[in-house]
Design a protein that fits this description.
By secondary structure, this protein is mainly beta. It has a single domain, classed as Beta-galactosidase, Chain A, domain 5 (Distorted Sandwich). It is built from one helix and eleven strands. The longest helix has 6 residues. It is globular. 18% of the residues are buried. The C terminus is likely disordered.
Length: 151
């Protein structure tokens, strides 16, 4: 399923599962700024990776004498449980929290959210991962996207 947000400048499309940004389109020029996700080359566009980026040896780790299998790049990017938690005309917010299924592969409680917000020709992307009451990881600065018309 795709979800859309737009303002006077841009329209974005975000795919559920995984809250993956699929499209950034200029409403004035019609230009599509995102990679098409061609399966012959690489079928993703902008996957969200959590709780790891990359892979583990044999896709496994041990925590408190228990062995866990965690696939490359974690479990957000293709997860159908990542749900739309907020929507306005110019923003989309998605989230995933600890469940019985996630605890089988990742023995930590967490809250993951990602918000895409349009502001003129900018897209503000804010990812927040609350890993415990004392640890919060936020990404926002470098993922702000500003689009300028081609010259």
């Amino acid at each position: 399923m795709k979800h859309y947000a737009r303002n006077s400048e841009l329209e974005i499309a975000v795919r559920q599962p995984g809250a993956e940004l699929l499209s950034i389109k200029s409403l004035k020029s019609g230009i599509e700024y995102m990679w098409s996700g061609d399966p012959a080359v690489w079928n993703s566009t902008a996957p969200n990776l959590f709780p790891i980026v990359g892979g583990l040896r044999d896709n496994t780790f041990i925590w408190k004498a228990e062995k866990y299998i965690l696939q490359k790049h974690g479990f957000i990017r293709e997860n159908p449980a990542v749900s739309l938690t907020g929507i306005t005309a110019d923003s989309l917010t998605f989230g995933l929290t600890t469940s019985k299924e996630t605890l089988k592969i990742y023995p930590f409680e967490f809250e993951f959210s990602i918000r895409y917000e349009l502001d003129g020709t900018k897209i503000r992307v804010r990812k927040v991962a609350k890993l415990s009451p004392k640890i919060i990881v936020q990404e926002s600065g470098p993922q702000n996207i500003t689009l300028s018309p081609p010259t």
